Amino acid sequence: MSKKRTVEYKTAIKNSVGRIIVFGLLIIAQIVGFVVLLTYLGHNFPPIDIITRAVALIVAIGINGRDHNGVFKLIWVIVILIVPIPGLLFYMLNNFSSSKHKIKRRLDKVDMMVFSHLNYNDEIFSEFKKEDPARASNAKYLRGFIFPIYEGTDIKYYPVAYDCFKAQIEDIKKAEQYVYLEYHAIETKEAFEPLHNALKERAAAGVDCRVLYDDVGSSIFINKNFVRVLESEGIKCNAFNPAYPILTLFMNNRDHRKITVVDGKVGYTGGYNIADEYFNIVNPFGHWKDNGIRLEGPAVQSLTAMFIEMWNFADLKRKEYDMMAFEPVPLIPVEGAKGYCVPYCDSPLDNEPIGENVYLNMINNAQEYCWIMSPYLVLSDEIARALQIAAKRGIDVRVMTPGIPDKKLTYGVTRSYYNMLINAGVKVYEYSPGFNHSKTFICDDKCAVVGTINLDFRSLYHHFENAVYMYKTDCIKDIKKDFEETFAECRNVTEKYAIRPNLFVRFYKSILRLVAPLM
């Protein structure tokens, strides 16, 4: 990294840290105010303290009986019983907040307006089921959440994110009707410039260009004038879930999706954001490994619907009559395109971990091998057990994580799972050149998933995510080749972490896992 870019990167981080500190202090002040008030009332009015503790016990028992992930239940029960006042406060905000229910109703309304117009073809599913009932079960599961299955869609896999990004820009330059971009993080630096220029040129030509970004995800990257500049150039811009210093747990639910759609005919998704480090223009964490896919054909309409869903949802004040309408384009299959695919998305508001369940179905149905790339390994009990069982029944299970972390604490949690996985027969690899940011599953040369969904609680339970489930598409052989070539660049740490750590290390790892769902 050049000295100039190092200074720019550190300056951006410094400005972001300042904003985050101020934001955090204001939130903490509100929390402390609530806790102090209730504690004061409890100390000075003993009946209130007795009632609070009784309510905490009843709530803890009730939580244990709810249909939640076991780790989340454990954390809530511990917190509520040890510190009843703040514990109850956060639990009520998280589960019974009127604002959260209002937001959920808003999303349900938007989903009905958009996804109900998608084209479904049950004949395609019947063909898929006849060919491979086990793998078709994932398509059936996703169909239950209004995500159609498609054939005739050409999918190209890019093992290098920058190659995917360049192809994306070239397609944008050809846009005739609209260009939609939705990204967790956008940085107004070198990587953004060619994309920015393409958008400006298309907007000037009358193309409807829209950019949606996550407010918190872009906080360390984005220029203060970003929205104003884009709007002045005819590019519509929207921030998802703007962060305000008001105590609400919805601020924890971020838009982690990465979607580009051109004219409803071509679409892109994958692991990368629009920022310099994702394309190795800067290297704060060594070489950055990322990927992406290009879709052309009928399945792009689902990506279009996902963008419109989030665009309409992002502005909670927008009236129904003023929302974007979704109009499916004719489903014209690409000649020669093979296999089936299901683009899908996940929401933290529907109480259904779709991303996790798709992964679980793939692991459970693997017959020969299951290979995984993920930047984080903060596993739910369900995923951990599925990986262990798959390895024990003879499946070649391999997990690839970063060699250089971007978050050291999360890296510690990631490594805390190595021993238990390895002892069950899972092989673990760390990407030696730097940070592996790809989120990719492949099983048996038949099915794969590429998208934005990490193997951690934040992606699986807290964020809005998207991915594409593929079966026997031409690109699966390229995905496998990328795995094989990347494994060769990794260090195999299976033997190193096969030895059981000492008591103190195990205790430390236990504490890390306890707080893992909050990371």
Number of helices: 18
Shape: globular
Strand order, main sheet: write it out: 1-10-17-16-15-11-12-13-18
Report the radius of gyration as a whole number of Å: 23 Å
Helix content: 40-55%
Helix vs. strand class:
alpha/beta
Largest sheet: 9 strands, mixed
Q: What is the total tally of β strands?
A: 18
Contiguous low-pLDDT stretches (5 residues minimum) are 1-15
How far is it from the N-terminal to the C-terminal residue, by CA?
Answer: 29 Å
Return the average pLDDT rounded to an integer: 87
Provide the β-strand percentage band. 15-25%
Give your account of this protein's structure:
The structure is a single chain. Helix content is 47%, strand content 17%. Strand 15 and strand 16 form a beta hairpin. With 519 residues, it is an alpha/beta fold. It is built from 18 helices and 18 strands. The two termini are 29 Å apart. Helix 1 packs across helix 2 and helix 5 (98-115) packs antiparallel against helix 11. It is globular, with a radius of gyration of 23 Å. It has helices at residues 3-44, 46-64, 70-82, 84-96, 98-115, 122-131, 133-143, 161-173, 192-204, 226-232, 300-314, 354-365, 381-392, 408-416, 418-423, 457-462, 476-487, 503-515, and strands at 150-151, 154-158, 178-183, 208-214, 236-240, 258-262, 266-270, 287-289, 292-296, 340-346, 369-373, 396-402, 427-431, 434-436, 440-443, 447-451, 465-471, 490-492.
